[in-house]
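Notes for week 9. Today we move from apo structures to complexes. The key idea is that a small molecule is not decoration. When we ask for a structure prediction with flavin mononucleotide present, the ligand SMILES becomes part of the input, just like the chain. The input block below holds both the sequence and the ligand string. Read it once before you look at the output, and try to guess where the molecule might sit.
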Amino acid sequence: MATPASDLLSRINSISGCFDDDYCDKQRYAVKTKSRKLNALLERGKKNRIISKKLYCDFLAYRWSPRVFSEKPVTHDELDSLFEAARWASSSYNEQEWRYIYAVKNSKEFSVFLNFLTKSNRQWAKNAYVIVVLVGKKYFSHDGSHNKSFQLDCGISLGYLMAESALRGIAVHAMAGFDKGKISEYLKLSDEYEPLCCLAIGHYSSSLKAEEITQRKPLDEIRFNGLNEWTKAQAGNRRDSRAQA
Ligand SMILES: Cc1cc2nc3c(=O)[nH]c(=O)nc-3n(C[C@H](O)[C@H](O)[C@H](O)COP(=O)(O)O)c2cc1C
């Protein structure tokens, strides 16, 4: 029977014609060597998450944001692979306005970066191997005007980073609980840049207890075929909230 990782491997093999051999070998290697771990993670994620449509990128549904990390270091190579994925996001005017600034455990800066976080985030994020700050550039390079999409673009980039992390079995936990002022002051950010998010990155821990695996809204609650479906859903929501009041 095909396991999730072997399934993934065969899918990568099936698209290998699209890429040069060296690239494909690296991809196959990554999946093969991680397959046992990947399977364990997929199985854990799968317990609670039901995919309602067939997905080629089903690994996305089996990632989750842990608050427990293993002590195993995340190598610079692994970290750079995540940033490489983040690099390929699309953006308005191809501005690529995301900047990732990080501190690695045992470095002098790690405690400084930890201190950017709210107390409750600090409590668990201190066990991560890397703390990252995602900073967005607010203005277009070509004419200096305000880029209305800068947060969205940075979000897409973060999504790519998370997708790569999911495939590699590396844990990424995003955090909005941080102090913008502290970050701006330490990094000497000009008005051009805004801190958008922090990330705790590490390897998933095998000593995970019963960590909460979150659920997702059903498809019917997030996609609507035109005004008719949208209006019906809105009317339903209003009825529900009146009934609850
Ligand atoms: C932009 C963003 C900000 C978040 N902020 C925090 C946070 O400050 N603290 C925290 O514990 N989790 C935070 N999370 C994690 C979410 O709670 C988590 O992603 C969500 O519950 C879905 O769970 P999953 O990622 O495990 O699937 C954040 C996630 C995102 C994307």
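The CA atoms of residues 104 and 130 lie 5 Å apart.
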